[in-house]
Amino acid sequence: MAVLPAAAAAAYQAVSQMGAHATPTSSAVATGEAGSFSNFLSDAVKDSIDTIKLGETMATKQASGQANIVDVVNAVNAAELTLDTVVAVRDKVVAAYQSIMNMPI
Prior knowledge:
By secondary structure, the chain is mostly helical. It has a domain of 61 residues. The chain is built from four helices and no strands.
């Protein structure tokens, strides 16, 4: 599967925006931590789910004639970009796991 440079750049931008919306949890603030990888990952997954749900909701509203087509296109494009990003991250995680499993001991 060939990845287009524009698609890769868009996926990178989507991931960087997901981290910008993350806020430290109350436990991280109480302990003085700026945030952990698990918090970042959890927030990114939640943002991804919310973006995909919004795309589905807007598509349903458009089908019933309740939404503006521009808003629907933007929401569906954001959902598609998010899904592409999630799939790319999953592929990298699987490749890293396979690489680790193939290492000689």
